[in-house]
Write the C-alpha cells for this entry.
Amino acid sequence: MARGRAQGPRLPGVVKIGIAITRARSIDATWTTVHLARAALERGATVRFIEPWDFEVDRRGRVLARTHAFDQPTDAETIAASLSERTAERRYADVGRLDLLLLRAAPLDPAIFAFAELAKERGVRVVNDPAGMLRVTHKAWLASLPGVRVPPAVVTRSRSSAQVFYASQPTGVVVKPARGSGGKAVGRVVPRRRAELERAFDEAAAHGDGYVVVQRYLPEAEEGEKRLVWLDGVAVGGYLRVRAPGEFRHNLKRGATAESTEITATDHALVEGLSGHLLRAGIRLAGLDIIGGWLIEVNVLNPGGAYHTDRLSGTQLADQILTRLIRPLGA
C-alpha cells in the first residue's frame, strides 16, 4: 500500500467497482485508471478489471464477466504490473451486482458499450453514461455546440467541402478522424498544399467512420496544450503538454512532455460554457484539451490527467475523483 497518502474514509460495506478497459497488457502505472483503482482499494472497495472479450450472458440471462480481480490495498505499480503481465487472479463477477462500472476504453469498443447498457438496465451506475459517450466521442458533437468556443472547423465526408474550408484558412488546418484516434491519422496541412490536404483527408477518412474533421490550425499550439480534468461540471486539475521538437501533436505517446500549469479565468469560462452540454449527455468525467483559449477536444473514453497533475502539483486527484463518483453510495 502506498504510504504517506491522505485517504478518504472507508466505504460503507463492501463496494464493488468494475472497470472496463481496452486491453490489460497495455496498462502502465501512469494511467489515471490505475490510480482510481488504487484509491478505491485503499478505501475498502473491491475492483474488477474487464476486457471487451470477457463479458458474456449466461443461459439464465445474467450478465457476467471473467475479471482481473483486486481485493486488497496495493500501489499503482503493482496493479499495473499485475494487469500488463496478466498475473492478477481471475474471477467471474455478476456485472449486475456491481455498485459502479467505469468505462475506460479507447478506441471505442461496441461490445463494451453494449454490455454497459445491459449493466445500466440492471441498476448499475455507469460512468460515463454509454449513450451519452456515443454522442460525445464523435467530434461532430463538439463542433455543433452553441455557446462553446471551438476553432472554426468542418466535419464532413466530402473532400470538396474540406477543400473549400481549407482555402479560407490562412494558418492552414489540422485534419483528423471524427472519432478519437489518439493522434493516429492526424495531419497538419500548411496553406497552398492542396495535394497534401487530399492525402491527409483520405488517411483520416480511412481510419474511422469516414467522417473527417478539418480544423483551423492555431499558432498558439507552439506554446503547448492544456489537459484539464473535468468532473461533474468543474475543472479539478490539469497539466500542460508540450510537444516534441518537429512534432505538431501534443500526445504524450508522440513524445510530448508534461509540465505544470494553472487553470485560468479563460479556462473556467470555457468549462462553464461546456459543462451543461456534458452533464445533459450523462458525462461525469472527461479530459478537456485547450489551446490558447480554444477548446480542441473532449475525451470521455479514457480521460487521463490525474497522475501527471498529482506529480506536478502535489494534489491527490484520483482520490478526489473517486470520492465524488461514489458519493451517492454514502461516502
Observations:
- DSSP finds ten helices and 16 strands in the chain.
